[in-house]
Design a protein that fits this description.
about 675 residues, alpha+beta, Beta-Lactamase, Alpha-Beta Plaits, 5-stranded antiparallel β-sheet, 19 helices, about 55% helix
Length: about 675
């Protein structure tokens, strides 16, 4: 699909489909192929350029004959020379092809010479006139078309055309003057010296005016972006008023008051025309005005009627050239203003579109930031680290409403123990250092803590942002799951006491610590007697409740550093670091008393009894399993003794009347490490 480009010609707001191979610089300079070049170069001519040459030769010949019809008797020089401008347009098509340009220049020379001879002029002046026209047209075509495809869209291009026309016509005069003097010396012409000067001046002014007017009109008419539609998008009503005003003024200046030098009173109307009519239309109207003025001058009427023939040519063509420069200059300035306005409008539209797109992007980013399951905090780069903004994920968790976080200090939101780590992370980011993420706990508006992994992209040297972006990945659920998994590996799911594996680990650490403290470790092994009957009688729910109650009583009884473990079923163990034998005996007694207290269930009150065995050890090298096994052996010994005692008591009157009573014999001591067994009764 071809690109649609704005009209740079200034004739309204039209657009054209430009060939992809065509490129034009800011000044309208041609830097590639242009579809509008065909009318000049004849690239689309299937005859290889001969048809183009023949057509130009025919038009050029008609222009020469038309000029000869306005010949001034006193100077043997036509009053107008439209052929001068047609020749330039002819040679513009071959300016980039030197051989064709030479052929075209010779064709211009021959056409001028032959047609001039046919109009009763001798061969000498005709050849001189032909050479001057060929040199003039070739130089002007080269000046305006050598470096860029010729266009007339900007005031500076009009200035280039006028200056180039002056230089080229001056070169033509330099060729024409010696030839004219030679022809006059050969009696081909009968000119006095004063007439020679006027003839040269008249030729110069006449050719400059013809080149400016006709070349300007040709460049506009055949410009692919200006075209022949000279009335489109014009202000029709104002254009009609301009034409009416021009007609009235022309009649008054050149008709009614033709003997008064008031021709330059047309210039305000010409300025109005240039500001209103399209640039192409202005060029065409200027050609028509020049033709009318030339016709009036040929009939010896109009403001120049009182002048000599050469004087009439000079004044008429000077006026026409000045009118062309003024009117076309105003029109091109208006086009520049229209282009500037169009560019400003397009720029404003792009800025508005860019701003709208930026707003949409920011809104999308804001929605994305609010919807992602990730906390985002925008912090100031100073040490105070005030919160600039926060996404909805954090506002819902760290604030009482959606506006509380903005402008609030950061540090009251952070757990005191994690403040130092977060400060170090932010300081490293300000210095542009890459640091690993840190785990920080945050205070929430509900009871509990939010555990987040915090990251801050480091600021670069050329970073002009006045804020830091802190992302918080909520890992509270992950950490809770990890804790649950860890507890499931180290704790009993029913009683929340440590399991047998964790019991060995705790006991091993406690034994290793005895080498530093010198204090022994005490271990109490506990087994609930007759627990199977309780399970069978009251059910599993009641049995679980009894186990949970026993464990809770042991935890409440012991010191913070002591450990309660459920080894299996109804067997427990208590690890008491830094405990002497005497202190361990006190623990055994208190444990027996706590277990013996009644336990209230839905089906009634139950009293349980337990067998206990205890040992102490202060040797770091001993195996923790061996120490636990020794305590279990003492417990089993106490259980066997309790069973024997129960059998004896049942045959002795006055034995225990309440089942489930616990007997506590004195602790027994192992010969090697000091171990005791006791049983509550």
């Amino acid at each position: 699909m071809p690109d649609v480009v704005p009209n740079l010609a200034g004739d309204g707001a039209r657009s054209s489909h430009r060939d992809p191979e065509t490129t034009v610089d800011r000044g309208g300079a041609h830097t590639g192929r242009d579809p509008g070049a065909n009318w000049l170069s004849g690239d689309d001519d299937p005859t290889g350029g001969w048809l183009r040459t023949m057509l130009y030769a025919a038009v050029f010949g008609c222009a020469v004959l038309l000029g000869q019809l306005t010949r001034i008797p006193e100077t043997e020089l036509p009053m107008v020379c439209p052929a001068a401008g047609i020749a330039v347009l002819w040679l513009l098509g071959s300016v980039h092809r030197p051989r064709r340009m030479v052929v075209d220049a010779l064709a211009v020379l021959a056409t001028v010479a032959v047609l001039t001879v046919l109009t009763d002029t001798s061969w000498g002046p005709s050849l001189v006139y032909g050479v001057a026209n060929a040199v003039q047209a070739g130089l002007l075509a080269w000046l305006i078309g050598r470096r860029a495809y010729p266009r007339l869209r900007q005031p500076r291009q009009l200035g280039l055309l006028v200056i180039s026309a002056l230089l080229a016509c001056a070169a033509g005069v330099l060729v024409f003057t010696p030839g004219l003097l030679w022809a006059n010396s050969q009696d081909d012409l009968a000119l006095v010296p004063a007439d020679v000067g006027l003839t040269v001046a008249a030729m110069f002014i006449r050719n400059v005016g013809a080149c400016v007017l006709i070349v300007a009109a040709g460049l506009r008419l055949f410009d692919p972006e200006a075209g022949l539609d000279v009335l489109r998008d014009m202000r029709r009503t104002e254009t009609a008023w301009v034409l009416a005003g021009m007609s009235v003024t022309f009649f008054l200046v050149f008709g009614l008051y033709d003997q008064v030098p008031t021709a330059y009173l047309m210039f305000p109307v010409l300025v109005w025309m240039g500001a209103t009519v399209s640039t192409t239309g202005t060029a065409v109207l200027l050609c028509l005005i020049t033709a009318l003025l030339t016709g009036l001058t040929g009939r010896h009427t109009g403001p120049t009627a009182g002048l000599s023939g050469a004087g009439q040519t000079i004044d008429t063509q000077a006026w026409s050239t000045a009118a062309a420069v003024v009117a076309l200059g105003v029109a091109l300035l208006r086009d520049d203003r229209h282009r500037a306005t169009a560019r400003a409008s397009r720029l404003a539209e792009r800025v508005a579109a860019s701003e709208s797109e930026r707003c949409r992007t920011r809104a999308a980013i804001r929605r994305l930031a609010d919807e992602i399951p990730l906390g985002v905090l925008i912090l100031g780069r100073d040490d105070s680290a005030k919160v600039v903004a926060a996404n909805a994920y954090l506002r819902d968790r760290l604030a009482t409403n959606s506006q509380d976080l903005a402008g609030s200090p950061l540090w009251p939101l952070v757990h005191p123990e994690d403040t130092a780590a977060l400060r170090a992370l932010l300081s490293a980011a300000r210095r542009g250092e890459q640091t690993p993420p840190v785990q920080v706990r945050w205070h929430t508006r509900t009871p509990g803590m939010l555990v987040g992994v915090c990251r801050v992209p480091p600021a670069t040297a050329d970073d002009e942002r006045e804020y830091l972006v802190l992302t918080i990945e909520d890992v509270t659920g992950v950490r809770e799951l990890e804790r649950v998994l860890h507890d499931s590996r180290t704790h009993d799911t029913l009683t929340r006491a440590v399991n047998d594996r964790a019991c060995i680990e705790h006991l091993d650490r406690a034994l290793q610590a005895t080498g530093e403290t010198g204090m022994p470790v005490g271990v109490v092994s506990i087994d609930l007697d007759g627990f199977r009957s309780v399970n069978a009688r009251f059910g599993e729910t009641a049995a679980d409740s009894i186990l949970t109650t026993v464990c809770d009583r042991l935890v409440a009884l012991l010191r913070p550093g002591d450990v309660v473990a459920r080894i299996r079923g109804d067997e427990f163990a208590v690890i008491c670091p830094r405990t002497t034998r005497r202190g361990l005996q006190v623990v055994v007694t208190q444990v027996a008393e706590e277990i013996s207290r009644p336990i209230h269930l839905e089906h009634g009150t139950v009293r349980v009894r337990a067998s206990l065995g205890s040992v102490t050890s202060a040797e770091p090298a001993v195996s923790p399993r061996q120490v636990l096994r020794s305590a279990q052996q003492q417990m089993y010994a106490a259980k066997r003794a309790a069973c024997a005692e129960d059998a004896t008591t049942q045959n002795v009157p006055g034995g225990p009347s309440a089942p489930g009573s616990i007997t506590l014999p004195g602790p027994s001591v192992l010969p090697e490490r000091g171990a005791g067994g006791s049983r509550g009764g």
